[in-house]
What we know:
Blueprint: H1 5-9, E1 13-17, E2 22-24, E3 32-38, E4 41-47, E5 50-57, E6 61-63, H2 66-71, E7 78-81, E8 85-91, H3 92-101, H4 103-129, H5 132-142, H6 146-149, H7 152-159, H8 163-173
Antiparallel strand pairs: 1-8, 2-7, 3-6, 3-8, 4-5, 4-7
Helix pairs in contact: 3-4, 7-8
Amino acid sequence: MHLSFEEIKSHFKPVVLKKNDFFVKQGAVCAYFCFIEEGILQHAITINGEEKTTYLSLKNSFTSSLKSFLNQTPSRKNIKALHDCKIWVVTRKEFEDLMQFNTAFQTFYFKLIEKQICLIDDYRIDLLALTPEERYLKLLENEPKLLNEVPLHYLASFLGISTRHMSRIRRNIT
């Protein structure tokens, strides 16, 4: 069975998250897979009482606490709105139906996962191979709007550096 884009879209429901609302909290099962129409979602973990940003999901992207969503197990991370967000969500059951009965969705999903794996691989290599300055410059080149849309301490955490070091890097570059 092959569904049209409109039929696929009909499985997703609109949700509005206000700034600092959680999409999923650490320890809870992630109920949804979502598309971000507007806003930014921060993926974070807490280590020794300190929040560490692991990923930033941007406008026009899909996200979830995927392991939790797929396996229906507690999420190891929080995902929260850094700004007011408009997202479109699909439940696990609807997701399974789309995967089982819609080859177009299956193809889309597998390409999405491949892309994410490549991004994660690049990110991990960058953390080991690039200096903090080089990571900042790469972010500036690839996602310049993040510097205006995401608070400095979240970006610093995402880049694996302290807020103080991030401020010093920004001062030296501009």
